Write the structure tokens for this entry.
Amino acid sequence: MIETPDIERPSPEVIAKLWHVSAATAAGTLHHLGIRNPHLQGPVAWTKGRKVVGPALTLQFMPKREDVYNESEYSDPERQLHRHALYHTQPGDVVVVDARGDMMSGVFGEMMLTFFQGRGGIGVVIDGCIRDYPNVQQLDLGLWLRGVTPNYHTQTNIYPYAVNVPVACGDVLVMPGDIIIADDDGAVVVPIKLAEEVAVQAGEKHEWEEFTKLRLSQGGHLRDYYPLSEASKLEYQAWRKAHHKE
């Protein structure tokens, strides 16, 4: 019997603190914290208006070599490790797949993702494709994909190799249990050890940007309010106090 490791999930409190953080704010904040590029490049939003924040279940694909893997779609299903990745699903999880940017293999289809959604999964980030998209888009899931295909997962060039290991999704390292923030701008990986600081700094940025947007909408000059000049910082502090943000 195949056994695969589970992930260590961050606390619900940490996840809750990050729900107000956009992918763009997370990416900028992480850059200030020393992470040059946390954006998983390639997968884009296929469910516009959706946002997810949750720990990453990871799945790694490798190039297919017939002497190592030569199974048909339904022969010995338990050898198909893409199933095992989903077996670990807990409420709030996001599955992140290094599918090597392959555009000819549908990593998951309707039945797999129905199972994932039924177990409480909330998001799917794949550097590759799914299939059954006309039906999958009816599920209550956020989807970040390179594309869609009618082919099943091992029909052409790749096969699932490992579950809950470090993966390179969109040329970015994702560790099992890292936090994914994904919205219409794309998907960003937040290392667990930086999550609390991201939440704090992003919250502060959200607050002064709220003030900045207000002043810009009222005709204020970009020089004064983005970023805040020394004079506008004093104005901002007064605004915070007046709006009970201290």
Remarks:
- The chain has two domains: 12-190, 197-242.
- Residues 12-190 form a domain with the Glucose Oxidase; domain 1 fold (CATH 3.50.30.40).
